[in-house]
Automatic annotation (TrEMBL):
<keyword id="KW-0285">Flavoprotein</keyword>
<comment type="pathway">
    <text>Cofactor biosynthesis; ubiquinone biosynthesis.</text>
</comment>
<comment type="similarity">
    <text>Belongs to the UbiH/COQ6 family.</text>
</comment>
<feature type="domain" description="FAD-binding">
    <location>
        <begin position="4"/>
        <end position="342"/>
    </location>
</feature>
<dbReference type="InterPro" id="IPR002938">
    <property type="entry name" value="FAD-bd"/>
</dbReference>
<dbReference type="InterPro" id="IPR010971">
    <property type="entry name" value="UbiH/COQ6"/>
</dbReference>
<keyword id="KW-0560">Oxidoreductase</keyword>
<dbReference type="InterPro" id="IPR036188">
    <property type="entry name" value="FAD/NAD-bd_sf"/>
</dbReference>
<protein>
    <submittedName>
        <fullName>2-octaprenyl-6-methoxyphenol hydroxylase</fullName>
    </submittedName>
</protein>
<keyword id="KW-0503">Monooxygenase</keyword>
<dbReference type="GO" id="GO:0016705">
    <property type="term" value="F:oxidoreductase activity, acting on paired donors, with incorporation or reduction of molecular oxygen"/>
</dbReference>
<dbReference type="GO" id="GO:0071949">
    <property type="term" value="F:FAD binding"/>
</dbReference>
<dbReference type="Pfam" id="PF01494">
    <property type="entry name" value="FAD_binding_3"/>
</dbReference>
<dbReference type="InterPro" id="IPR051205">
    <property type="entry name" value="UbiH/COQ6_monooxygenase"/>
</dbReference>
<dbReference type="GO" id="GO:0006744">
    <property type="term" value="P:ubiquinone biosynthetic process"/>
</dbReference>
<dbReference type="GO" id="GO:0004497">
    <property type="term" value="F:monooxygenase activity"/>
</dbReference>
<keyword id="KW-0274">FAD</keyword>
Length: 396
């Protein structure tokens, strides 16, 4: 039987491109399609203004995929994680702890890179690979599978025969729908803002999470912007408050921003457009079907806490690339992948779901419990190491 490609990937977001890079580095031929084309700058409509903290295990996967050298020039080290608990409005700090990578024998927890920059760098790498066919502006339309092959139809009418089809096409994955895989979705009535700021004080390569009712407020270090210290902000709020802030005059938004940040980096000033999206936890009931795999946000969507989102997706990529053999769509191979990933995916989603509910609560008893938990996790060394290892992708 003649195949157009070993592996077809629907979705050319960060996870889809990283997956294509890892699989092509292993020698598989790969076709990647996506109905959109990455914006070529931070200010272009549709650009992803979030940033990702690539934890050390993820950096190793990207090195193996042959893409880290392209990403590294845009990376800022994550030298420490600071966690602050606050309550009331304007917020009052109640507890602060700092977690150090040295506890895990590491120099840094990882590297932070703006998503839009990573996307463009990955696209350049894939365009140079002879065994990658990158088709942007063309989407997935239909899927028919047999025991020995998968047949894909694209939105431009092209038909392809592949050994394996992978859905890395987001929380509303068309591949997942075509494979008949259901999901469970939990909604929190929250939305998150993502944008970049400059600030008066240097961040010293420290990322900070500040808890208050409504959700976490996170600062992640970036390279300097026009000579000023800069950070990426992810700011969760109740959806109603997010809508009100989005509609507020710029000076009012800036005032609330600086109150919410507790002044930890001096005065902050937004220097990019402000994007927002709804917060959910979503998990697929299964991650494989005949000749089909779903991964990344097609399989799991997590609230933006603890850098778990894309790092969990990169763990999917590592696990899948390790098990694939001469016939990448072989049923026994896909079963091994599912057994290895489903448990971790569900445990991680459950932990982040619980943590987000605790973080968004304004109830005094819950906030007191949150502060006690922070103190215990940091101050009890064996517990601190276990939680930190779990956050880096190891077993708790």
């Amino acid at each position: 039987m003649t195949f157009d490609t070993d592996i077809f990937i629907s979705g050319a977001g960060l996870a889809g491109m990283m997956l294509a890079a890892r699989l092509s580095a292993r020698g598989f031929s790969v076709i990647v399609c996506d109905p959109s084309t990455p914006p070529d700058g931070a200010t272009v409509e549709g650009s992803d203004l979030r940033s990702t903290a690539y934890l050390e295990p993820s950096c190793r996967v990207l090195e193996e995929a042959g893409v880290w050298d392209a990403l590294a020039p845009h990376a800022t080290p994550l030298a420490a994680l600071q966690v602050i608990d606050s309550d009331g409005w304007p917020p009052t700090e109640r507890a602060r702890r700092t977690f150090q990578p040295g506890d895990l024998g590491l120099d840094t927890f990882g590297r932070n890179i703006p998503n839009w920059r990573a996307h463009l760098s990955l696209m350049d790498v894939l365009k140079a690979r002879e065994n990658v066919d990158l088709r942007l502006g063309v989407g997935f339309s239909d899927l028919v599978t047999r025991d020995d092959a998968a047949f894909v139809t694209l939105t431009d009418g092209t038909r392809l025969r592949a050994r394996l089809v992978i859905g890395a096409d987001g929380r509303n994955s068309p591949v997942r729908a075509a494979a008949g895989i259901d999901v469970t979705t939990r909604r929190y009535g929250q939305k998150a803002f993502a944008f970049a700021v400059t600030h008066d004080l240097p961040h010293d390569d420290v990322s900070t999470e500040i808890y208050n009712s409504g959700g976490a407020f996170t600062t992640v270090p970036l390279v300097d912007h026009e000579g000023q210290p800069a950070s990426a902000i992810v700011w969760m709020n109740a959806a109603e408050r997010s809508r009100a802030l989005a509609a507020a005059p710029a000076e009012d938004f800036a005032q609330v921003l600086n109150e919410r940040s507790l002044g930890i980096l001096g005065r902050m000033s937004p220097v990019s457009p402000i994007r927002s999206w709804p917060i959910i936890t979503q998990t697929a009931h299964r991650v494989t079907a005949r000749r089909t795999v779903i991964l990344a946000e097609a399989a799991h969507v997590l609230p933006p806490i603890g850098a778990q989102g894309l790092n969990t997706s990169i763990a999917d990529i590592a696990a899948l690339s390790e098990v694939l053999g001469d016939d990448p769509g072989d049923a026994a191979t896909l079963d091994r992948y599912a057994r290895g990933r489903l448990r971790d995916m569900r445990l991680r989603a459950g932990a982040i779901d619980l943590f987000n509910r605790v973080c968004q609560s304004g109830h005094p008893a819950v906030q007191a419990t949150r502060r006690a938990g922070l103190a215990a996790v940091h101050d009890i060394a064996p517990l601190r190491q276990r939680i930190m290892m779990a956050g880096m992708g190891g077993a708790a």
